[in-house]
Design a protein that fits this description.
alpha+beta, eight-stranded antiparallel beta sheet, 20 strands
């Protein structure tokens, strides 16, 4: 079984179906609906189905497979009837066909019939027989009827023909093989014959029945199926039916059957598309095309245009389809006069109505267009392109697409356009030409250079309808826009058309086209100028302007567009387009004198935009003239001409984009004009508005205010000249005044009377953004005046941020205003710039880490001036809320440090004082607290002294007759002494600062002014709080908090460059060079470069934000560039930079070309020359936000070598040997005598190296020296800090006397330059030329890209601070280059400005006004902040004795002192942070006069003296700073003050150990003989007279607090003396104190032997004796002192040295005769010591001490008994063992031991010398005296009497043996047995204990004389007169 392709019977179209567009060309698959559209055949076939055994109607459909099987079975039966008659076979075949159709229908077109081809052959032959039988022998008309009846469905007759037709239709649609069997039967020719009959012979009826339509559809579909096969097509040519049918379509149109017209054309087109060569040959052989053309030529005039067009299209379709195979039919068409026929047919459409359209016309024109491509060869034309042409134009000589080859066919279209007037026909022709251009751009040139169609069309286009004109000029524009070709000749004809103006409408269309063309490319501005079009238009406009001037400009309303007005508008727009970007055209317009006439067009709203554009273009050649016109028109416009003002302002905004326009605006008094525009609006925003303004004008007024402020903003934006002009002329103040006069703002502040009480709750204050949102709301709940105020504030806020000029109307202000205010309060300053101004830079690039960008700080000051004017009496609460909200917004604006500095530079503090003085002085309320907070933030950066004086004077009412602002107390406060504080605020106004206050003053914030506090105290507290906020350091340095210096900031994120240009660092001149070519200042010779002795670069810098490592933007500290005259290339010879990749410092002496970065080689590729670069990593030493000092020292060595050392903060970071700077730049080794080398420098990034990055850094004082400075000089330079601004010629040393003359650190002539902001000014190029020299002015002007004679551009000049010093020529300084990348800040914070208005006096005044501890703490906190950051304040304090005054004030207010204040004073002294930072005493004045003022602290309530004593002990015992602190304490006379403290009655015994510990620590830290003398003097003072036996004194009352420390009637004195002696002994034997032998000897000699002997008197307490003996023998351990002590020393030395200061003081008071010289009285020490020790034989410790002295052994070792003797190497046979052994049994045998002691003391020189290293004697505690009743006590008293007289010789043999055995010497005992003649005879009676105690007081520091102090004078006289002999 085989499966065939399903056939189909496609539905034929209805008689009106569009055969050309829809298609009977396609063979669609059959649909079920198509097969069931005709129910009659199915009903008619029902009996046959029944006969065949098929199911009846209504039964279920049978299985398709079963039907095909049944059909196969029946067909086999049919084939077996071959021997039957034809009639039987016919009947049998006809019986099979219903079954075949049924199976086909139920199989959905799928044929499963193996005998399909056989069936098709039989059915088609049967149909052929039926048709032949019907047509045989009949005339044509009868044959047509018979054929129709054969194929027609008949209900009451046979339907064999219809059944065969349907079956064959199905079979032809199955497959090609089946179709071939059908074609072989001859059926195609018969079908074509039947189609001819159906078409030629019409039926006599009006419409076809449904069955006829079905038959027609099956018939045509069968023919279309036949045409799809070549065998079928060849079957069509078996007769002449094809020729006849084709000819019939052209000659029998009026007699043909209308029902078969479209099917016939459909079949013929299908035959044409087949492109069968046999058919083409057949048509050519039969002259079919020629005959058809002849027929049409005869009938074309009579046929309707659509029918003629359709017939011609059919013929051309055969020609077109056959052309790819053979051109025979085309030749036949051409030879048959086909082109004239086409022209006639197309022109037939010219008579149609304009609105009628026909698709046949479009088809025919498309065929004609195709004919233009038919030709034997390409057209040959010459290249005749006229230049100039557009950039994108390319004339392609090669055929890259379909090209025109048949000019005869194109001439048909060209002729049609010439002759036709129908718009549809003409537009079809233009579209056809456009289509040819789209095929290939060469077609335009092929046609235009041969037939010139477009050029000819221009001449006649004016005669065509307007739509045709529009299409034609669009075609002309396509040449420019699509082909990028400039048709010069065509444009000249268009210009001639415009000039002649035959039809105004055509001229208007042409001008519009010219307008669009002119805007395509600037080239057309020159073309139309050279062609004369510009002059033509200007002449026409001049004529029209004269007409307008004569008529008074009374034109029709703008809404009604008159043709003449419209033409004038287009001419103006064309002129505008021709002027854009063309200076020559603007000159032409100006030469034509058109400026006055253009101004006339400004009065007409229709022409205003174009006229303004023309004037804007004229501003390119004369901006001043434009500005004078615009400003004049603004000032002369009337009140009702608001649209004119708005248009003028918008035009002004566009011109202000350019720097040239902004300059012209300033020169033309544009600022004054705009401000006068605001002045004219006076009162327009009142509520209700005045009658002159009328109702509803507030919105228009605000619109005008907005545009005026936009123009001001644009004029100031990024223009330093205009900004400087606006500021210098006080126009910010004038702007505020004009805005206040608008009527919406309230009266001035002075009119309010007394300060208003606050009625607003702080939490209920709405944010500024919410208020703005409400103000711009369409249904705003705010009062009209308040709404207007808020809108104006929104304008000013945007203007301050530099975004106002980007707005367009008030609708944009709503979103922009809210965004601006909200972002400022949220620290997000993003803006939304409009796309209209592309030249304005994006402000988001200038946003620094979310900080608000303040572009115009003067506008913020204007907002401050308006703040007090926001008060309205009608709505006081709302007004105060708005004021507080605005103040909060301003506070957010100055939140960042940069914003504060910018506003300080703009003078916002002075504005606050002048405008908001009453609010600042109110003392309470949320507005006061916000304004105070703003003031404090700004004053912490910089404040003028006069403004600070005014702030401190708030609340002080001046006398009525005086308007001078002075700083003095008012009458109400005259009783307060030292009142230099201010009445700035009451305590209640500290809201918003309670958090800050609580950090340092707990509990002060809730109740800053308690009840009963005086107004002075409250004022002092408020002033102190403000000063604390102002003076607290913001940037903490690692060492100390210091004030930030003035600086220059370089921001590389905005422009990518910004630098300080240093002109004429040096000029190396040839021998013949004139001196005048050198710049610089000075009278000396030219400075040599490079310096022969090396150089040093020093600078302070701070990195705010480093560059990203990927950006590669180094921080360039110094770049020195040299340029040799008459050469082009400068060279970098020395550079210091910080590399961002690894934070390494790079110093280079390599010669590099100074050229742009894009020309330079990458740094990685360009390796530095050997020995030319030093790179040191220092990232660990750098910290962002901190000031660092950099020093680069280049030391010149032999030949060309040098040593480069880099120091960061004084620490050496790197050093290396390098090659020195070569003598001449670059590759030059010699210089012409008449030439010279110019040396200049850059700090930071010059414009040549422009590169955007995130780098922001600041530069402080910078110096360049002509020598390599030493390390000591560098350290001194760094100690001066970044605020030092001198030349190091008179540098005061730290801590030295102020009157001492300072010495220079650097020689004057060695300073290249010194740069700091303090010595700077803002000048101009012209001023530099007149003040310095022309050479430098030219160099600076070249660097700043301005004229060398410019006198308006502000130039920031940092003067060379060394310019006045003697020496060689120096540079004039440095000039800031880069408007946005460089910012200068003059630092003068409140802590520094205080120095100019009283300084310390003000701070001391605050202390004097304190009445409680909070106020006192605040006042001291201010002093601490100022002293910590300002060194000058400390000098002023010392100058005015401020610390003494402060001590006096604190002593008066000692009751207010507490631990917090004490800690604060420690911070002032610099010793508070023990363990965290350095505890060295920083402020000597505070330490000397306050901390060491013990009388002050002894009277405090919180026992602060304990904390003071503990702190002093800690700082003196500090291992690092202890010696330094001790030295300072010595200078502060700490020990005399502490000694004097012992006589204080309030000093409790518990404090004495702490005091004595301080004394010991002081002596260990800084040993001073004078201090020891002071202590020794006091120890002598504690001695009792001999009548008082201390041995019998009870020590039980030593701790009685009722007795003073120095009481002579208690044991407390003995205890104090003991403590002091123990301290001295511990100090002298301390391992921490390394005293030289000379110093010890000097100390001993200053004390004298008698001082020690005084402490060994018999009536003294044993503890005194033991400690004194230990101290004496400690000194005698020195051999030299032993010898001198033995020989004898003068007495009374301690008295003389203690009274030296008293003598000096007395000498100054009165003169007295010098005392007579007396010979000194010598005291033999050991003889006297022996006598004194006789009184202390009862003290066991004495023996041990003396034995330790002889053995030079530590006393502690001897106390352990005989065991220690053996341990120390003494054998039992040693004489020393025998001598010392009795000491171990002193209690049992006291007598022999005492005798031994006395004997030993008689031979001091027999002490054996120490063979080894001297041992360190440990401190021995005082032993208790043995009781008198004990054995040891009795032995002490019996020892002296029991000792024999020759006790010393009793042991001589043993001693002699010892000396001979160990030392080899004789015993020298006899040499010391006789005492000297001058040995003092000290009887055991009266003692010298109190000698000189009161009389030896120095400086008045000795305690007062006791009642028994007369004994001191007696002792002193005894020593001087009777002590000898």
């Amino acid at each position: 079984m085989t499966t065939g392709r399903a056939g189909s019977v496609p539905a034929l179209p209805s008689p009106g179906w569009d055969l050309l567009g829809r298609g009977m060309e396609a063979e669609a698959p059959p649909e079920a609906e198509d097969r069931t559209d005709d129910p009659k055949p199915q009903d008619e076939g029902q009996p046959l189905a029944v006969q065949l055994g098929l199911p009846r109607a209504g039964q279920s459909s049978p299985d398709p497979a079963g039907l095909w099987d049944l059909l196969e079975k029946k067909f086999l039966e049919y084939r077996q009837l071959a021997d039957r008659s034809p009639e039987e076979r016919r009947e049998s075949l006809l019986c099979l066909l219903p079954l075949f159709l049924k199976a086909w229908e139920h199989s959905v077109g799928v044929v499963c019939f193996p005998s399909l081809q056989q069936l098709a052959e039989d059915v088609s032959e049967q149909l052929v027989q039926e048709i032949q039988r019907a047509l045989a022998g009949k005339p044509a008309e009868q044959a047509r009827v018979a054929a129709g009846q054969l194929l027609q469905w008949k209900e009451d007759a046979g339907q064999d023909g219809h059944l065969l037709l349907k079956s064959v239709c199905v079979l032809t649609g199955t497959d090609s093989e089946t179709l071939g069997r059908v074609a072989e039967s001859g059926l195609p020719a018969l079908l074509l014959q039947c189609l001819y009959l159906f078409f030629v012979f019409p039926l006599e009826k009006d419409a076809l029945s449904h069955s006829d339509v079905q038959v027609q559809r099956m018939f045509v579909q069968m023919l279309l199926n036949v045409c799809s096969d070549s065998r079928g097509l060849e079957g069509l040519l078996s007769g002449s039916e094809l020729q006849s049918l084709l000819i019939a379509t052209t000659c029998l149109r009026e007699h043909s059957c209308c029902f078969w017209k479209e099917p016939t054309f459909c079949v013929l087109r299908a035959i044409s598309r087949a492109q069968n060569p046999s058919i083409i040959q057949h048509l050519k052989a039969t002259d079919c095309v020629r005959l058809s053309l002849q027929n049409l030529s005869r009938l074309v005039d009579t046929l309707p245009a659509p029918e003629a067009s359709e017939a011609v299209s059919l013929i051309l379709s055969f020609v077109k389809d056959s052309y790819p195979v053979s051109s025979a039919l085309l030749l036949e068409f051409e030879n048959g006069e086909g082109y004239p026929l086409l022209l006639k047919v197309l022109l037939r459409y010219d008579g149609l109505a304009p609105g009628e359209e026909d698709h046949h016309l479009e088809e025919l024109v498309g065929l004609v267009v195709w004919l233009t491509t038919c030709g034997r060869s390409e057209l040959k034309v010459f290249d005749s392109v006229t230049y100039p042409q557009l950039d994108g134009f390319k004339f392609n000589h090669e055929a890259t697409g379909v090209t025109v080859k048949n000019l005869q066919a194109f001439q048909v279209l060209q002729s049609v356009f010439h002759k036709a007037s129908n718009s549809v026909l003409c537009m079809q022709v233009l579209l056809a030409i456009r289509t040819m251009w789209t095929w290939n751009s060469r077609n335009f040139f092929l046609l235009e250079w041969t037939l010139q169609p477009i050029s000819q069309f221009v001449e006649i286009v004016a005669l065509k309808p307007v739509p045709v004109q529009v299409h034609f000029f669009q075609l002309l524009e396509a040449l420019v826009f699509e082909l990028h070709y400039v048709p010069h000749e065509i444009l000249r004809k268009v210009q001639r058309l415009i000039k002649e103006s035959p039809v105004p409408s055509c001229t208007l269309v042409a001008l519009r086209s010219v307008l669009r063309i002119a805007g395509k490319d600037p080239l057309f501005t020159d073309i139309f100028r050279d062609s004369g079009l510009l002059g033509l238009l200007l002449a026409q406009l001049r004529k029209q302007a004269k007409i307008m001037r004569k008529s008074g400009n009374k034109e029709s309303s703008p809404g009604a567009q008159h043709p003449e007005r419209e033409l004038t508008c287009v001419m103006l727009n064309v002129v505008v387009t021709l002027l854009k970007g063309s200076v020559r055209n603007a000159v032409v317009l100006k030469d034509h004198g058109m400026v006055p006439f253009i101004k006339i067009f400004l009065d007409d709203e229709s022409y205003r935009a174009a006229a303004l554009s023309i004037l804007e273009q004229l501003s390119v050649i004369n901006a001043e003239e434009y500005m004078s016109i615009i400003v004049g028109a603004l000032c002369s416009s009337t009140q009702g001409e608001l649209p004119l003002k708005l248009d003028l302002l918008q035009s002004l905004l566009r011109i202000l984009e350019s720097p040239k326009g902004r300059a012209a605006f300033r020169v033309s008094s544009g600022f004054n004009g705009l401000l006068s525009l605001l002045s004219d609006l006076e009162g327009s925003l009142q509520d209700p508005p005045p009658q002159t303004w009328g109702a509803g004008s507030s919105q228009q007024t605000l619109e005008l205010v907005l545009h005026t402020l936009c123009a001001l903003s644009a004029a100031l934006h990024l223009d330093p000249v205009n900004g400087d002009f606006f500021r210098r002329n006080g126009l910010f103040e004038k702007l505020a005044e004009d805005l206040c006069l608008l009527g919406c703002f309230g009266p001035p502040e002075e009119e309010h009377g007394v300060p208003r009480q606050s009625s607003v709750d702080t939490p209920k204050i709405r944010p500024f953004a919410d208020l703005l949102r409400a103000a711009f709301s369409p249904h705003s709940p705010l009062p009209p005046r308040t709404q207007s105020c808020l809108q104006i504030l929104s304008f000013l806020d945007s203007m301050a941020s530099g975004t106002l000029h980007l707005r367009r109307d008030l609708k944009e202000c709503l979103g922009a205003g809210q965004e601006q205010a909200g972002d400022a309060q949220k620290r997000d300053a993003s803006s939304d710039p409009q796309d209209n101004f592309k030249q304005w830079p994006d402000l988001e690039e200038r946003a620094e880490e979310g900080d608000a960008v303040i572009m115009h700080p003067g506008i913020v000051c204007t907002m401050v001036r308006l703040l007090p004017r926001l008060h309205h009496e009608d709505h006081p609460q709302l007004s105060e809320e708005i004021q507080c909200s605005l103040a909060s917004h301003l506070q957010c604006l100055v939140k960042s440090e940069k914003s504060r500095q910018v506003m300080c530079e703009a003078g916002m503090l002075g504005t606050l004082m002048s405008s908001c003085r009453r609010a600042l002085a109110a003392g309470s309320g949320p507005l006061h607290s916000r304004l105070i907070r703003i003031f404090e933030k700004l004053a912490s950066q910089t404040i003028e002294p006069d403004v600070l004086r005014q702030f401190l004077g708030l609340g002080i009412v001046p006398p009525p007759s005086s308007a001078v602002r002075v700083l003095r107390p008012s009458r109400a406060h005259q009783g307060t002494p030292g009142c230099s504080g201010s009445q700035s605020a009451t305590p209640g106004g500290a809201e918003g600062r309670s958090g800050a206050i609580s950090d340092w003053c707990p509990g002060a914030a809730p109740a800053l002014r308690p009840s009963g506090t005086s107004p002075d105290a409250a004022t002092a507290l408020q002033t102190s709080l403000s000063l604390i906020s102002m003076t607290s350091p913001r940037n903490l340095q690692p060492q100390r908090a210091a004030l930030a210096p003035s600086f220059v900031e370089f921001d590389m994120s905005v422009e990518g460059h910004g630098s300080l240009f240093i002109p004429t660092l040096a000029t190396v001149m040839g021998s013949g060079t004139e001196y005048s070519i050198s710049g610089g200042i000075g009278t000396g010779a030219a400075r040599v470069f490079p310096p022969p002795g090396g150089l040093t670069f020093s600078c302070w810098f701070l990195i705010s934000r480093p560059a990203a490592p990927t950006e590669g933007h180094p921080l360039r500290f110094l770049t020195v560039v040299r340029h040799l005259a008459r050469t082009e290339q400068p060279f970098v010879c020395f550079s210091v930079s910080l590399c961002p990749e690894d934070l390494s410092l790079v110093v280079s002496t390599e010669e590099k070309e100074f050229q742009p970065l894009d020309v330079m080689e990458p740094e990685d590729d360009a390796e530095p020359s050997a020995g030319r670069q030093l790179q040191v990593r220092c990232g660990q030493l750098l910290a962002c936000g901190q000031w660092h000092h950099l020093a680069v020292v280049v030391t010149k060595e032999m030949k060309r070598n040098c040593t480069v050392s880099t120091y960061l903060d004084g620490q050496l970071t790197g050093s290396a040997k390098m090659l020195y700077i070569q003598p001449l730049p670059g590759p030059f080794f010699s210089m012409d005598p008449s030439s010279f080398v110019d040396v200049y420098g850059y700090i930071a990034t010059p414009q040549l190296w422009k590169q955007k990055s995130a780098l922001i850094w600041r530069l402080g004082p910078t110096y360049l020296f002509e020598e390599a400075i030493s390390l000591e000089t560098l350290e001194a330079l760094i100690k001066l800090g970044p605020r030092y601004c001198g030349n190091f010629q008179a540098v005061p040393a730290q801590g030295e006397d102020l009157d001492r003359e300072a010495v220079p650190l650097v020689a004057e002539e060695r300073i290249f330059f010194g740069l700091h902001v303090a010595s700077s000014c803002t000048t101009s190029i012209a001023d530099i030329r007149s003040a310095y020299n022309e050479v430098d002015s030219r160099l600076i002007a070249k660097e700043m890209n301005t004229s060398s004679r410019d006198n308006v551009t502000p130039v920031f000049l940092m003067r060379n601070s060394a310019g006045h010093l003697p020496g060689c020529l120096r540079t004039i300084g440095a000039v800031a280059v880069g408007h946005l990348g460089v910012r200068v800040f003059h630092s003068s914070p409140a802590a520094s400005s205080l120095d100019f208005i009283g300084g310390p006096a003000i701070l001391l005044g605050l202390i004097s006004l304190a009445t409680d501890d909070h106020t006192m703490y605040a006042a001291v906190k201010v002093l601490h902040s100022v002293l910590s950051s300002n060194a000058m304040c400390d000098r002023l304090m010392r100058h005015i004795s401020g610390y003494q005054i402060m001590a006096f004030l604190l002593r008066k207010k000692a009751s207010l002192l507490n631990h917090r204040i004490f800690q604060l004073l420690l911070s002032v002294a610099g010793t508070a942070e023990l363990g965290f930072r350095s505890s060295a005493i920083a402020n000597v004045g505070v330490f000397r006069n306050i901390l060491c003022n013990f009388e002050l602290w002894m009277n405090t309530t919180d026992n602060l003296e304990l904390a003071l004593f503990s702190h002093l002990a800690e700082i003196l015992q500090s291992p690092r700073e202890g010696p330094k602190n001790a030295e300072v304490a010595h200078q502060a006379q700490l020990i005399p003050k502490l000694v004097f403290l012992f006589n204080e009655p309030s000093l409790s015994p518990s404090r004495i150990p702490k005091v004595i510990a301080i004394l010991g620590s002081q002596l260990r830290g800084h040993f001073s003989i004078r201090d020891v003398l002071r202590i020794g003097l006091f120890i002598v003072y504690t001695l009792k007279p001999s009548s008082v036996n201390e041995r019998q004194m009870c020590m039980d009352r030593a701790w009685d607090p009722s007795l003073p420390a120095g009481s002579q009637t208690s044991g407390k004195t003995i205890w104090l003396r003991t403590q002091l002696l123990e301290m001295l002994l511990s100090v002298m034997s301390s391992p921490q104190l390394h005293l030289s032998s000379e110093l010890k000897e000097e100390l001993f000699l200053n004390l004298g032997p008698d001082w020690f002997l005084l402490l060994l008197q018999g009536h003294l307490h044993p503890s005194t004796t033991v400690l004194a003996l230990k101290l004496l023998l400690h000194f005698l351990a020195s051999p030299s002192l032993r010898g001198r002590f033995k020989d004898g020393l003068p007495v009374g030395a301690w008295v003389e040295h203690s009274s030296e200061d008293v003598h000096v003081m007395m000498d100054n008071l009165k003169g007295h005769p010098p005392p007579a010289e007396q010979s000194p009285c010598l005291l033999p020490g050991f003889r006297a010591l022996s006598d004194f020790l006789e009184n202390h034989v009862q003290i066991p410790e004495v023996y041990l001490i003396v034995c330790a002295f002889f053995l030079q052994t530590p006393l502690a070792e001897l106390e352990d008994g005989p065991r220690l003797l053996l341990v120390h190497g003494l054998s039992p046979s040693s004489p020393w063992f025998v001598l010392l052994l009795p000491l171990t049994a002193l209690d049992r045998h006291p007598g022999p031991a005492a005798a031994l002691l006395v004997t030993l003391l008689s031979f001091p020189d027999q002490i054996p010398p120490n063979r080894g290293q001297p041992r360190c004697h440990a401190s021995v505690a005082a032993a208790e005296t043995p009781p008198r009743g004990s054995a040891a006590g009795r032995a002490v008293h019996r020892g002296r009497a029991a000792a024999p007289a020759d006790a010393g010789s009793h042991h001589e043999p043993a001693c002699g043996r010892f000396w001979r055995r160990h030392l080899g010497t004789e015993l020298p005992g006899q040499r010391a047995t006789v005492p000297g003649p001058c040995a003092p005879h000290l009887p055991p009676g009266p003692s010298v204990a109190g000698a000189g105690a009161p009389a030896a007081a120095g400086h008045g520091h000795l305690p007062p004389r006791s009642p028994k102090g007369s004994r001191g004078r007696v002792a002193l006289e005894h020593q001087r007169s009777g002590g000898c002999g």
